[in-house]
Amino acid sequence: MSCENKPRGNDPGVAEPGIARQDGAAGRPGGHAYLFGLGSPHGGDRLGWLVAEWLGDTLRERDDITVARLDQPVDLFLHAVTPRDRLLLVDAMRGQGPPGTLKVFAPAELPEAAARLSSHGLDLASTLALVEALGLFRAGIRIIGIEMPGPDMTAPKLDEAQVRRLHAVVLGWLDAG
User: Fold this and answer.
1) pLDDT of 6-39, one tens digit each?
2) Lateral strand order in the sheet of 65-70
3) Please, which residues bridge with residue 37 across strands?
């Protein structure tokens, strides 16, 4: 699973590792779609990054989405987002079911524990509150939480059924916009 290095933001000369960028959707009524995998290179917290890498490869032919890995939620502000754009965040979570459980949340439905799980500075809930205050992503925000494996499992993974469900959820979100 690897993402292509593509230009970042409005500067076609700046490449950023771990990003699959497509630029053809600027004229769509719903704006551009951003899918950010939150996480780190360590343990179960890698799930968001693994999903972003896999989806970056899977969706690379689409021109209506940017897929990237983020270390922390506030890093979404490193991208040239507008109020017309849509946002889908994928993050590891705990306490919502067996390992690999997928749950989709609107920002107001986000469990407090999941909101704080991957933060390194400004947590997810606070970042989303800032996004709202700035009037960004008015076309919609969704969060997909993936239950982390237990502490004895160092290599997080999703089975084929979970991958199919994740793919279907993401395509449904993209096509609805």
Assistant:
1) 333 333 332 233 333 333 344 445 689 999 999 8
2) 19-21, 65-70, 33-38, 86-93, 141-147, 102-105
3) 69, 90
